[in-house]
Write a structure and sequence with these properties.
Layout lengths: L2 E12 L2 E12 L3 E5 L6 H8 L7 E6 L2 E2 L4 H5 L2 E4 L11 H10 L9 H11 L15 H13 L5 E5 L7 H18 L2 E5 L3 H7 L2 E6 L2 E7 H5 L4 H10 L1
Parallel strand pairs: 3-8, 3-9, 6-7, 7-8
Antiparallel strand pairs: 1-2, 1-4, 4-5, 9-10
Helix pairs in contact: 3-4, 4-5, 5-6
Family: Belongs to the ABC transporter superfamily.
GO molecular function: ATP binding
Protein name: ABC transporter ATP-binding protein
Length: 240
């Protein structure tokens, strides 16, 4: 099975503090992997390093075999991401926001932008609201537009940082169904950081658990939860 994400010996130190400590794990093609940990465990820092937004002190990240910090532009063409909340211009329509973002993607030919924007709007079920200003969108719609943005460059893997934060039950369900659809129909690999353990248990077959910047557990979701609720198993693990 092809390794889509490979993290080796990843360490990040800032002003004497160690935010990440020799983090290592792999996510294989077609997997949906959950990234768990208590507040301050290093999840967002890890995703920011993985997307090339900050440089690691040591270690490496490969996306489909391409090293992120040596060949960032090539690696990022294989990756889509939503780090924290997606940011759009509220006074512009959803379609125009996506067109603007697509123009910034050097890997997307200019003559393909319009058709690609229409494709991703259809995938995330926003065609009917594409001409409305983003300022009128619900939080769930903004998250779906964020995933549309992440899809623009035909990524092989998508990283999501707390994608369901603040969503109501309907928005959470729509987001979950979209992730499962993209995984099933497009073969996209996902790494999803979240504290919503019920959602993670529903969609992630594998888990990586961080505590104090280090991996303390990784494996199949069922191996951690067993016959118990994932929340109970997780609290027991991180409290030990």
């Amino acid at each position: 099975m092809k390794t889509m994400l490979e993290v080796k010996g990843l360490t990040k130190k800032v002003q004497g503090r160690t935010l990440l400590r020799e983090v290592g794990f792999a996510v294989h093609s077609g997997e949906i992997c959950g990234l768990l940990g208590p507040n301050g465990a290093g999840k967002t820092t890890l995703i920011r390093v993985m997307t090339g937004l900050i440089r690691p002190t040591a270690g490496s990240i490969r996306v489909a075999g391409v090293e992120v910090h040596r060949e960032r532009s090539r690696a990022l063409r294989k990756m889509g991401a939503i780090v924290e909340n997606p940011v759009f211009f509220p006074y512009m329509s959803g379609r125009d926001n996506l067109i603007n973002l697509a123009l910034l993607d050097p890997g997307l030919p200019k003559n393909k932008i319009s058709s690609r924007v229409e494709e991703v709007l259809k995938v995330v079920d926003l065609v009917g609201r594409a001409d409305d200003k983003v300022g009128t969108y619900s939080l769930g719609m903004k998250q779906r537009l964020g995933i549309a943005q992440a899809l623009l460059g035909h990524p092989e893997v998508i990283l999501l940082d707390e994608p369901a934060n603040g969503l109501d039950p309907i928005g959470m369900r729509q987001l979950r169904e979209l992730i499962l659809k993209l995984n099933r129909e497009e073969g996209i690999t996902f790494l999803i950081s979240s504290h919503l353990l019920d959602e993670i248990q529903r969609i992630c077959k594998r888990l990586v658990v961080l505590k104090d910047g280090a991996v303390i557990w990784q494996g199949e979701t069922g191996e951690l939860s067993g016959s118990r609720d994932l929340e109970e198993a997780f609290v027991e693990l991180v409290s030990g």
